[in-house]
């Protein structure tokens, strides 16, 4: 099993899509009692803490198919490991491998392992509000808050603050956890108050910064509300967490505009702006080159990279031929996406006002799609006053208090995608109202 030893030791076995990882996962999933699984379980007892930690991480990827008692046994042994990171991963593996009772938690005294185990147990720790460990109590109160009636929330809030200082030493991402619960309860205003209180205490400032980032990811108004607080605490004597939260908040164009003078006085690393979906200027076409390009494409064409330039050149010259109109129809109505969005105003130009209701009905469902929504909003902007019937849908998108659900590799990236959609929606509304 030399290959397995090397794969774990160099971390290739925990690298997504790496051939070594694929080989291990396939072998163990095929036979949990086979030689690869047996050797992997032995590596959890390696003398090297890095190997132990990587092994436990790899085992966590192998327990999704159902309980695995032998993996749970390996995790139990490592709950008292001398390495803190190994203890954390052991606690997570123990629960994921199928041991989701509270007996193991009661037997532990180490605060790191107890906290990690309580985190992994989730809602099951909700009744441990009187636990000896502040971190376990904090997690229990956080679970209680999820379902607490409004009248009981102040008491739970007070309990969370009482344990925040000590719990912050062991609960990873405590501010983000707190933020997710408050977001689920739609307690936006309260979130800002909690951030202010946490930031004022140096012992809980990092937690407050984490909660501020979580709020900015969740609510559109949060950056404008929180930038002054973050600026106040950003500078010498503070860790990187506050500066990171400020960089997140300033992904918001509105926050940058409102607080431009205040942010100029502090030092932080801005979030790198992602490129929008639109490329540079397309090639230039005249009617002859556009007609020649379409002549080489089938009538049932479904995509065309420079469709707007091609058909605009033809429409500027005169009416489309029957074949060209059929191609534009297929590009507009066959499937949703960028091509449909850029072609919709062209079809309106070709077919006239009678086609408008059908086009708008086709477009509105996609204006909040993070992958292609900007193209649809740009197309509505090109339609100007003619898109007035969809103004309520565009305005509703602008007036959202929460972020539009999107999918990106990071929460900051998801916030940036929502900000781009918001900018496009504002531009579309302005163009619709003013005529383009």
Question: What's a quick, concise take on this entry?
Answer:
This protein has helices spanning 2-9, 19-30, 35-43, 49-60, 69-78, 84-96, 103-107, 111-121, 134-147, 153-167, 174-184, 188-200, 205-218, 222-233, 240-249, 253-258, 260-263, 287-295, 307-317, 322-333, 338-351, 356-363, 373-383, 391-398, 411-434.
Order of helices and strands: HHHHHHHHHHHHHHHHHHHHHHHHH
For the report, how would you describe the main beta sheet? none
- Which band does the percent of strand residues land in? under 5%
Number of helical regions: 25
Number of strands: 0
Determine the mean pLDDT. Answer: 93
Low-pLDDT windows of residues = none
Cα(first) to Cα(last) distance is 68 Å
Helix content: 55-70%
Broad shape: globular
* Radius of gyration, in angstroms, nearest whole number: 28 Å
Structural class: mainly alpha
